[in-house]
Amino acid sequence: MDSNKEASGPQLALHQQSHPSLLRGSRFRIIAAITTMLGLLYFFFPLPDAQNSEPMPWLPSGAYQTKVPLEAHIMSKCPDAQVCLRDLILPTMQKAHDKVDFKISYVGSIEDKSDDVECKHGPDECLGNIIQLCAAQLYPNPKLSLGFTMCMINDLKHVPEKSLVESCALEHGLAFDKLNDCASKDEGAYGLDLLRQSVARTAQANVTKSCTVRLNDNIRCIRDGGKWKDCDAGDTPKDLIRDIDDASGAE
Fold first, then answer.
1. pLDDT on residue 131
2. Looking at residue 115, what is its pLDDT?
3. With contact defined as beta carbons under 8 Å apart, do 77 and 11 qualify?
């Protein structure tokens, strides 16, 4: 989790500058934000140039007796999450994607005695999280969903601006109308529930920092405050792939 104060990126007509979290009554504001940003979007443009992300050369799938749970707990506007995905998770997945059951969950907080969700970097981050959760649900193949998330998180300042989400969806082959339907389903309640469940999962795992990487349900490495921490077995893709091979029984 980065130590910076709440990001000051564009508000996307959220009109919530004085409300740093999704508290009571904010359901309708976030629904309005989803409608504003996603409902009016269009696609089928010529494929844009790559936006700060490299092609993801996935190796052919192999047969492994055990797929190892690999999970990254992040925030969509967190600089530590950006480095963690770019320098550790993405290179690891390029080499070991067929050996792991990969998942991204989100760091936030849920108020006691309510279902209200708070995101550290404000409602823009909550909306960015929802969009990325929708991508993962609609496109469970990480070649698509992780690529899309990496594309977005490479441009933290503009998460979740229309132009960024649009270009990342096109770049990685995601249909924007499907993202829109997911985020705005049931007047936005569906997307908010995805976020709530993801934040609850992170809390149940006793994870509080973005980015926290867990392997086999145990904390494997943390990127926090611009530094790698609690990475006793190493903080490089080679180190993580070695541990994945050991856990999966790969030769």
1. 97
2. 81
3. no
Q: Which two tokens stand for residue 68?
A: 């190892």
Dist CA 237 CA 215 (whole Å): 13
Question: Which residue's structure tokens are 């992780």?
Answer: 146
For residue 250, with 0-12 CB atoms within 10 Å meaning exposed, 13-18 middle and 19 or more buried, which class applies? middle
**pLDDT confidence bin for 249, thresholds 50/70/90:** confident
Closest CA to 142 of 217, 59, 75, 207: 59
- For residue 23, give both structure tokens: 């508290």
In the chain, the N- to C-terminal Cα span, in Å, equals 35
Question: Apex CA 93: angle with CA 123 and CA 206, to 5°?
Answer: 50
Residue 205 CA to residue 208 CA, distance in Å, equals: 9
Distance CA 91, CA 85 (A): 8
Q: At what angle do helices 189-204 and 26-34 cross, to 10 degrees?
A: 110
pLDDT in tens, 204-218: 999 999 999 999 999
Q: Answer for the pair 191, 179: CB distance below 8 angstroms, yes or no.
A: no
Average pLDDT over residues 2-10: 40
- What pLDDT, in 10s, does the model give residues 31-60? 444 444 444 343 333 334 434 444 455 444
Q: How many CA atoms lie within 13 A of 174 on its CB side?
A: 34
DSSP, collapsed to helix, strand or coil, labels residue 28 as helix
What is the token pair recorded at 205?
Answer: 């795992």
Residue 13's identity, in one-letter code, is: A
Q: Classify residue 77 by burial, with Cβ atoms within 10 Å: 0-12, 13-18, 19+.
A: buried
